[in-house]
Amino acid sequence: QVQLVESGGGLVQPGGSLTLSCVAPGFTFSDYAMNWVRQAPGKGLEWVSSVSSGGANTEYRDSVRGRFTISRDNAKNTLYLQMNSLKSEDTAVYYCAKAGDWTSRGQGTQVTVSS
Questions:
Q1: Rounded to whole angstroms, what are the CA distances from 30 to 23, 24, 57, 58, 111?
Q2: Which one has a higher pLDDT value, 2 or 75?
Q3: Alpha helix (H) residue ranges in 34-100
Q4: What stretch of H or E contains 83?
Q5: What pLDDT is recorded for position 2?
Q6: pLDDT number for residue 17
Q7: How far is CA 46 from CA 20, 40, 70, in A?
Q8: Residue 81: predicted pLDDT
Q9: CB neighbour list of residue 52: distance below 8 Å, 6 or more residues apart
Q10: 79 near 27, Cβ under 8 Å?
Q11: What distance lies between CA 32 and its chain's CA centroid?
């Protein structure tokens, strides 16, 4: 069973930065493309970003492109999301998941952007 563990969330002022991490100890991490997804209060899951299995290819939703950076360290079985210039609309629980299988996500980490 896949167990993903997200961390790094918190309360940050608009314009601030956070880096999220996701550790994936239960499967061959380097075999899979990975996603970050998020869920804002009262809304459904929303795709944020993707990275290919080797890390060379990345994609972002329009609202975060240029502000967020996804990366991975396959030697450490860890996925990252660097978030800069945060906005109130980025407030959500953030999850990492295998690409195409969002049921693999962990418990998530809360990001709150507020002054």
A1: 12, 10, 14, 15, 26
A2: 75
A3: none
A4: strand 78-83
A5: 63
A6: 98
A7: 16, 8, 16
A8: 98
A9: 33, 58
A10: no
A11: 15
What tokens were used for 15? Answer: 């314009």
Q: Given CA atoms 89, 94, 97, 103 in this order, what sign does their dihedral have?
A: negative
59 vs 111: CA distance, rounded Å: 21
- Give which of 2, 15, 1, 5 is closest to 94, Cα–Cα: 5
Q: Which residue has the tokens 């502000």?
A: 67
Extract the tokens encoding 36: 């970050």
Q: If phi over 0 gives left and psi between -120 and 50 gives alpha, with beta otherwise, what is residue 72?
A: beta
Whether 37 contacts 95, CB under 8 Å: yes
d(CA 76, CA 80): 11
Sheet containing strand 18-23, strands side by side = 5-7, 18-23, 78-83, 68-73
